[in-house]
Amino acid sequence: MANYVVTFARGFGSGGKAIASKLAADLGIHCYENRILTLASQMSGLDEKLFNEVNEKIRTNGSFASLLRGLPRSRQYISRNEKFVSDDKLFDYQKQIIENLADTESCCIVGKCADWILRGRENVVSVYIEAPRAFCVERTMENMGVTEEVAHATIAHTDAYRADYYKYYTHGNYWTNPVNYDMTLNSEKVGVENCVELIKAYLKIKNLI
């Protein structure tokens, strides 16, 4: 069977990353998130000669996957307390990595405008995970060990950053627009486990698994 990709966009604290990780584990595929940013950052810091050498090695080996899997996986929440500042070069490297992953392996990709980058591909399913603020606050307090006030502020700042990021790199599209996605799920009402099962059921409907 041909490879497939499930992309995830998510509100902070909604459990989107946990759902993506659980889905990937159940399907026996890799889940990529911040390692894409790490590799893209490393690539954007290379001079043109070194970058060409890296590209040549990637063409020889077939994909970015081996490089990504060699990077450490973040075990903590990554929140954005700063305002969004564009970096077109960095985004271009992320785009190359995401497109290469979609061409070469089945995987889950969290964030990074992956749904937009891979739009129109028959082997891609895009999912948006959201939940009421109270649910997200409770999960953030538990996972980050912070106060309710800090949790509220973290959610507000991070979601604003994600919205600005998405709007800029998709040329005006809105991050939470349900038309962007195959599925939009409320993780409080559906539950993390059931979200995973629903996505797997949809993949079967699409004849991807």
Molecular structure report:
- The chain is 55% helix and 11% strand.
- It has ten helices and five strands; from the N terminus they run E-H-E-H-H-H-H-E-H-E-H-H-E-H-H.
- Helix 1 (16-27) packs across helix 10 (192-205) and helix 2 crosses helix 5 (88-104).
Low-pLDDT runs: none
Query: Mean pLDDT across all residues, rounded?
Result: 88
Rg (C-alpha, Å):
17 Å
What is the approximate shape? globular
Q: What is the distance, rounded to the nearest whole angstrom, between the alpha carbons of the first and last residues?
A: 8 Å
The amount of helix comes to 55-70%
Strand content: 5-15%
- SS-based structural class? alpha/beta
Number of helices: 10
Give a quick account of the main beta sheet: strands, pairing sense, barrel closure.
5 strands, parallel
Q: Write down how many β-strands occur, each being a DSSP E stretch of 2 or more residues.
A: 5
SSE succession: EHEHHHHEHEHHEHH
Instruction: Kindly report the spatial arrangement of strands forming the biggest sheet.
Output: 2-3-1-4-5
Name a few traits of the molecule.
single chain; 209 residues; alpha/beta; 5 strands; 55% helix; globular
Helix and strand arrangement:
Layout (H helix, E strand, L loop, with lengths): L4 E6 L5 H12 L2 E3 L1 H11 L3 H14 L3 H5 L18 H17 L2 E4 L3 H4 L6 E7 L2 H12 L3 H22 L13 E4 H4 L1 H14 L4
Parallel strand pairs: 1-3, 1-4, 2-3, 4-5
